[in-house]
Design brief:
Blueprint: H1 10-18, H2 22-41, H3 45-52, H4 68-80, H5 84-97, H6 102-118, H7 124-142, H8 148-160, H9 170-187, H10 192-206, H11 210-214, H12 224-237, H13 241-253, H14 257-269, H15 277-290
Helix pairs in contact: 3-7, 4-5, 5-6, 6-7, 6-8, 7-8, 8-9, 8-10, 9-10, 10-12, 10-13, 12-13, 13-14, 14-15
Length: 295
């Protein structure tokens, strides 16, 4: 697959650079890299996690805890009816009390990924902290774990945290994400979470703004054609609002507004059958409004 990211800006960028000396161009790249280093130094995952988790409930005395099976049943019931915030409360309480249990840590990571949807429209700082938290739980869950669902959540959390990496590290981070996706799909070729992560990764790599493309040395190859094929397979396997939204975004990136409109309309009209469906409805409505579709 050929890299197609930032093609629209490429010729203009090449023309601008051709008017400068090689040393000046190199100096500009170094200045941008220095700026990225400066920005990265302003914060750290450890500090962000500490702030984000400061309000987590303390571990309850063992005698006062419901059984793990009861807790998991409560978590599944809440998430199944779209109560992502309630499910998160249970998942993070379990993570406090069972910090070495891969299954619990997996559910905590998934809950933090859900939180990113609940924080839509709020400050970026909160969303970034939730992304760090999802990745931390996912990494701990996947340490030594071979369950494809756990590894797929790690891939998703890695993808959600790409923008938090220093600019010059994002290509390697994307490659790491793809490695995790491929490891999951080698075990379970139709693992929807991994396929969805792949579609989103290809979409992002194929639509990089020129400044990001400038730093994307060594990034995986990607194409919008590949992203569309993978997104369509996701919809076939799991026709949720989430998979349809991913497909619609790929179609919009390809300039196929009519097809994207049809996919989004179908997504909004479908009953909320999957846990994240209701949380994604505002984003779908916003995109349809932008396409001139009135509810």
């Amino acid at each position: 697959m050929a890299r197609v990211g930032a093609l629209g800006a490429g010729p203009r960028l090449d023309s601008a650079l051709s008017t400068r000396s090689a040393s000046h161009s190199l100096g500009g790249r170094r200045a941008l890299a220095a700026l990225a280093l400066c920005l990265a130094a302003c914060s750290s995952p450890e500090r962000e996690l500490e702030r984000w988790r400061a309000d987590l409930p303390p571990s309850r005395p063992v005698a006062e805890r419901p059984s793990v099976d009861e807790e998991l049943a409560t978590l599944r019931a809440r998430r199944g009816r779209g109560d992502l915030a309630g499910a998160r409360d249970v998942a993070l309480q379990l993570a406090v009390e069972r910090p070495a249990d891969p299954d619990v840590l997996h559910l905590a990571s998934r809950a933090e990924s859900d939180t990113l949807l609940l924080l839509r429209g709020q400050g970026r700082e909160q969303r970034d902290r939730a992304a760090w938290s999802a990745l931390d739980y996912a990494r701990r869950a996947a340490a030594g774990a071979g369950d494809p669902a756990i590894r797929a959540q790690l891939a998703w959390a890695l993808g959600s945290a790409t923008h938090l990496q220093p600019m010059f590290s994002r290509a390697g981070h994307a490659a790491r994400t793809l490695e995790e996706i491929e490891a999951v799909l080698a075990q379970e070729p139709e693992q929807v979470r991994a396929l969805a992560t792949r579609a989103v990764l290809e979409l992002r790599l194929s639509t990089l703004p020129w400044i990001a493309d400038l730093f994307a040395f060594g990034a995986p190859e990607a194409s919008l054609e590949g992203a569309e094929a993978t997104a369509r397979r996701c919809v076939e396997l799991r026709p949720s609002r989430e998979t349809r939204l991913i497909l619609a975004k790929v179609l919009l990136a390809r300039g196929e507004e009519g097809a994207a409109r049809d996919v989004l309309t179908a997504a909004r009209a479908a009953p909320a059958r999957y846990p994240r469906d209701r949380a994604l409805e505002p984003e779908i409505t916003e995109l349809l409004d932008g396409l001139g579709v009135v509810p």
